[in-house]
Amino acid sequence: MFELALFYFFASVLVAAALTVIVVRNPVYAALSLVLAFFTASGLWMLLRAEFLAITLVLVYVGAVMVLFLFVVMMLDVNLERLREGFWSYLPAGGAVGVLMVAEMGLLLGGRYAGVLSKVAEPSADYSNTKALGRILYTQYVYAFEIAAVILLVAIVAAIALTLRRRKDSKAQDPSAQVRVRRADRVRIVQMPAEKE
Amino acid sequence: MNAWLDTLLTLFQAQLGAVWGPFAFELVTSLAFIVCIVGPLMGCVAYLTLWERKLIGWMQIRRGPNRVGPFGLLQPMADGIKLMMKEIISPSQASTGLFFLAPIIGLMPALAAWAVVPFSPEVVLADINAGLLYLMALTSLGVYGVIIAGWASNSKYSFLGAMRSAAQMVSYEIAMGFALVVVLMVSGSLNLSDIVEQQGRGYFADKGLNILSWNWLPLLPITVVYFIAGVAETNRSPFDVVEGESEIVAGHMVEYSGMSFALFFMAEYANMLLISTLTVLMFFGGWQAPIDSVVTNWIPSFIWLFAKVFVVVSLFLWIRATFPRYRYDQIMRLGWKIFIPMTLVWLVVIGAWMQTPWSLWK
Predict the structure, then answer these.
(1) Which one, A164, B40, B341, B360, has least CB within 10 Å?
(2) Across the interface, which of A2, A75, A175 has its CB nearest the CB of B330?
(3) Which ipTM did the prediction report?
(4) Which residues of A3-23 are buried (b: 16+ CB within 10 A; e: fewer)?
(5) How much is the average pLDDT of B97-105?
């Protein structure tokens, strides 16, 4: 009963936050609503006793990805008028894709997962979701997991390689050279006899 | 003591449960426990500010605050009253809602993280299996208060501070995360009580020298990285370019006044206490006594925890009194080019070590 109330609370906040992301004018507010949406989604996962996924969602998406996202959004000089120009002409196509996606997900999820909340098995006290997930990830699905890791690595390298420009006039300092400097390199003490009038 | 507490709780449950049902009982006890943790924590935060001023004063051959009350002991009260009396000003071009939400968002994770901290073998509010993950998730949220404050103030200095802090905290979080992964690897558990218990086992612990069995010795480089990353994560000197008063006045806090400023201040000190407590829990044996003897075992475990946290927090202050502020590019270099590769290498080294017959962690 209490969990059901929590579920409806999280679900309604999630839907409202997700709606705000696309409705609100200011991109910073949109990004913050997305943070709220991630947070409530993690609450929903917590209700399903998937504590690892729930906490990782907060750790990775809220704690790292969205921080960088906000970082970029705050620095961009976004012209709201130009962004909203094509709204009505894009609406039919976007709406159709959205409805299609909802329908497909409804077909896929509707039958199998309806009432999944009531079927959650109460785990025993020493059962660790994290441990179970780790075990299965590193035994049964180890190849898929490693391949995913390699793909991500390639993506990182590619992103850096595509955007890295070596500037010729860059004035970066070399800290190790700075640290290696000794007094003799910079200061020369000269003995000078006192001059008499 | 415990039996007495249990009787009281049962009595309380019977009374309250009869009137409003078991849910009300849960709610009331949880709230009571939260107050029991946050209340003393706020007291510690208040007196940490005094201790900081006193200690830095002594280090600089000054007396520190000594006018309000005996030895200046009432100084935090005076500061608190002063801050409460000040007018709260909001810049006319600020986005007001976010402007006042930011300090609360900054303080919230610093307090919520204490839910999983074990104060002694029995005393922990939520002894959850994924305690370490929960802590990592919550400490990564602290940056939002700073970013939102910087943006909502609609001021250039605030914004610069927010950008600096976002970059800095995200970079050092990675090194911190890897350091915690090493701890997790050697203790084989995400539960903080288990992590502390595990440190009480080993060759030296059997000989009564617990202090040599704690994680700090076998994981020494990781301990150092974790602590320094912790200093950077809390934006303390010498990594306080976020506030950098000589460059950007006070960074994200520049437009705040009165209690809304005080909330940021409280968040910083609560975070400092949290990072110190975590350093003690992960690397310095938590509530355990350093040597196994009659006298040290007689001292209650939470006093050991408190004493260790006090030492580590004082280290924060000592560092502040000693080192000049880092240059911004060198902060980034330290985080990305030194700490992250170092923790990655040590992750592999410890992993390999654990597979050899000389593994300390079985």
Answers:
(1) A164
(2) A175
(3) 0.78
(4) eeeeeeebeebbeebbebbee
(5) 88
